[in-house]
Amino acid sequence: MTAHAPATTLGPGPAVLAIDVGGTQVKAALLDEDGRLQGVTRHSTPRSGVDPGGAVIDAAVELLDAARRAGAPIAALGMTVPGIVDETRGVGVRSTNLGWQEYPFGELLAERSGLPSVVVHDVRAAAEAEARLGAARGIDDVAVVTIGTGIAAALRIGGRAYTGRGYAGELGHIVVDPSGPPCACGRVGCVEAIGSAAALVRRYRERGDHPVNDAADVLRRRQLHDPVAVAVWDSALAALGAGLAVLTSIMAPQAIVVGGGLSEAGAVLFDPLRAELDARCAGLWVPRLLRAELGQDAGTWGAAILARATLTPAPTKRNTDA
Amino acid sequence: MTAHAPATTLGPGPAVLAIDVGGTQVKAALLDEDGRLQGVTRHSTPRSGVDPGGAVIDAAVELLDAARRAGAPIAALGMTVPGIVDETRGVGVRSTNLGWQEYPFGELLAERSGLPSVVVHDVRAAAEAEARLGAARGIDDVAVVTIGTGIAAALRIGGRAYTGRGYAGELGHIVVDPSGPPCACGRVGCVEAIGSAAALVRRYRERGDHPVNDAADVLRRRQLHDPVAVAVWDSALAALGAGLAVLTSIMAPQAIVVGGGLSEAGAVLFDPLRAELDARCAGLWVPRLLRAELGQDAGTWGAAILARATLTPAPTKRNTDA
What we know:
Two copies of one chain form a homodimer. By secondary structure, chain A is of the alpha/beta class. Chain A is 38% helix and 21% strand.
């Protein structure tokens, strides 16, 4: 699906730098004045036991300097971070994977760059991009779910993001199997502990006979009828189905858009997941299950969209009244 | 808590008739021109295998006729119905308990009464009342949960009802124990099958040695250390805690307001339920857990509030622009 991303455009506007900080990779790209993403680069996510937030800020400033040296007229900066993010304050409240707590990314980024800067939750950024340019376009009530190293949902209600002060959409830590495996969060049987790409690898390695590097390897083993891979994959689908059914019971979205690394599996994931969702929602609301369209660049697109939005604020009620 | 309801007032406005149709009882009351609920009456919910929706409409029209004969100047009609309700169309989409499907309550009520009429989901009506006059007052993101014969939640986001076209807040049919008891909905281990007032009675009767008529009887047996009552009550608390934790993971409400029959138990319910919720939400968002303030009259208040709203539409954006 990433194939059609190069044709995607946001339309004319200021050029901005978009940085998408993931658990393993930092992606960066320039959104040019025509509204196209240019020269996506990938780097390992910097880690620091002492100052994990500062390491990310340093990396972002280096990326900005490099882009400026290349002559790009950058007007604003948009950066995604994982974990729990308070977008109103620009604060990374907590990232279990990367290790920060209450880190003022927005303030520091603006200070170090001298540019209008916006910090946004990675999955929320992807949802913004899917809503503007991708599979969630034109859908009022929609959940965008990312299945990768972790699992999270970004909710849009009545065509607008609903973040619950940064805490909504914690789909990954819903307990779906009280007798399931332990989760990094301290609970047992969370969706993420069974259904994430990372869980597929970890759970295969615990019992499987073959080396696997990633979820695609586990899927390959499953297609060879490796019984451990079959069991691990089937339980992942059941956990994902249960999680999406719970999300549906609470929010009844018109559609659920699934992206992230695991969504690259395509029909092998979507066909049985749709069947799980249909069965579990029988007699209740059944949302459409859609594949995300912006692929691995969704977060980068979202960061770019929100960076531009800092320069051209949408008309608010107050503006209208004035 | 019902004790302070008589002092509650909506303020001056037109008089309306409010009818709250529950699974076992129909309550009706006049909201007078001072904004006070007058003369709440209770009747058994009419049931009809042939025309279950028509039986409810007939009962509503009789209540209206009686109120008119008593000289009340009724300007509008508000009625709650249980199950899944499409409030935009005024249609009772489905009630498993009472047996209708796609029943046009709003249209028929307006036709038979000759009055502006509004049909609303019973729990949504209770939430409207708690938001206007009770425990949810002034809270932007809040879930109002009713625990009675069934279990359901009404969501308010940014200070406005979010209904998901009638399907949001289906808390009762979230599966929290895949090895739990069967639910009337066809699933196994739903919150409602373990944690509702009806489930407490049914599950005690299956194994207990004493006759029980209602959830209060089961609670009394528990306080006498009847081991069956202790087990049934503890599993109900665990199921309710798991359900509220799931609701929190998805929506992260600032507060959860709990009402309905079981909430009459007071601290015996709320103290351990708060502990369950705290433990299950550890490391994530923990909402405040509040007791509903309008007691058994919340649905009636909500129907009255929404009936008045049909006569005095709130200013909309379009009005502002004109």
